[in-house]
Every structure is written in structure tokens, then in C-alpha cells.
């Protein structure tokens, strides 16, 4: 004897599947970065597509810079629809950089544009390269 599911049973099954997916952990991604050393600062350029500026958290403590970011769900299914299948999981970004005491922690700044986070870490005065003049008799 075959049994076909009613619309209500299908809806109930789909709701249970969606609840399981919503409870599953988000994927944590290590953002790809470029690290540049300039004369006055170090610059970290991190790819974090899908994040919003308000979803990015930077913390500098004990010589470590922690970068966290999240991506909000792409879309919410209105009450009148049912998601039939979902592969996309909104990821979270996480990365830690050990910079020690070479930067001025209170002067770190960042900007975010088109999925790219740029972090400016100003160098401490004593970590900047200095030219040393050689003294002596003319020869």
C-alpha cells in the first residue's frame, strides 16, 4: 500500500529539516590575507566577502590582533513559502595575528569596502627603520 504525503506532512518534514540545519554550526573560514610592511605601518588586507561592516569585530590585546566576521543569511523565506533545499550556510571568519609590541595598539584603524577589510597597524617609533649617519674624519 503506497502512502503519499499530504501538503501538511511535507511542510512539517521541511520545518524539521530547516530546524536541524539552523542548529548546525556555521562554517568557520580563515580569510585570505596579504600583509604589507610600509614605512610607517603594517597593513593587513583580508578578503571577507558577504560580511557587513557591523558584523566585523577587531580586538587587539596582549600583542594579538583578532579578526572575526560573520555573514548574515542570504535571504529569509517568507511565511508563504517553503525552502525545498538549502546548501548555503552563512560562514564566519576568524583569524589571529601575533604582532607583539611593534605596533601602537591604540592607533589601529580599519575600513571595509566591497568585501575587503583593510587594517592599518601604525608602527611604534622604535620599530621604524632608522638611518644612522656614520661619523668620522673625511677621507
Description:
The protein has 139 residues and is mainly beta. Helix content is 12%, strand content 37%. It is built from 1 helix and 8 strands; from the N terminus they run αββββββββ. The protein has one helix spanning 7-23; strands at residues 28-29, 33-37, 41-47, 51-61, 64-71, 92-98, 109-113, 116-122. The strands form 2 sheets. The protein has a 4-stranded mixed sheet, with no helix packed on it. The chain has a 4-stranded antiparallel sheet with strand order 2-3-8-7, with no helix packed on it. Strand 7 (109-113) and strand 8 form a beta hairpin. The N and C termini lie far apart (107 Å).
List keywords for this structure.
single chain; 139 residues; mainly beta; four-stranded mixed beta sheet; four-stranded antiparallel beta sheet; 1 helix
Summarize this structure briefly.
The protein has one helix spanning 7-23, and strands at residues 28-29, 33-37, 41-47, 51-61, 64-71, 92-98, 109-113, 116-122. It is mainly beta.
Secondary-structure map:
Blueprint: H1 7-23, E1 28-29, E2 33-37, E3 41-47, E4 51-61, E5 64-71, E6 92-98, E7 109-113, E8 116-122
Assess the beta-strand content as a share of residues.
Answer: 35-45%
- What is the number of helical segments per DSSP (H or I, 4+ residues)? 1
Query: What's the alpha carbon Rg, rounded to whole Å?
Result: 25 Å
Spatial shape: rod-shaped
What is the helix/strand order?
HEEEEEEEE
Amino acid at each position: 500500500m503506497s502512502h503519499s504525503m499530504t501538503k501538511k506532512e511535507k511542510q512539517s518534514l521541511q520545518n524539521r529539516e530547516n530546524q536541524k540545519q539552523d542548529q548546525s554550526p556555521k562554517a568557520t573560514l580563515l580569510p585570505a590575507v596579504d600583509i604589507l610592511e610600509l614605512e610607517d605601518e603594517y597593513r593587513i588586507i583580508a578578503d571577507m566577502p558577504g560580511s557587513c561592516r557591523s558584523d566585523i569585530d577587531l580586538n587587539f590585546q596582549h600583542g594579538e590582533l583578532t579578526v572575526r566576521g560573520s555573514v548574515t543569511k542570504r535571504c529569509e523565506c517568507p511565511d508563504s513559502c517553503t525552502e525545498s533545499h538549502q546548501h548555503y550556510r552563512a560562514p564566519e571568519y576568524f583569524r589571529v595575528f601575533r604582532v607583539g609590541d611593534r605596533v601602537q595598539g591604540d592607533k589601529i584603524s580599519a575600513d571595509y569596502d566591497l568585501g575587503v577589510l583593510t587594517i592599518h597597524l601604525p608602527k611604534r617609533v622604535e620599530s621604524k627603520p632608522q638611518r644612522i649617519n656614520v661619523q668620522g674624519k673625511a677621507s
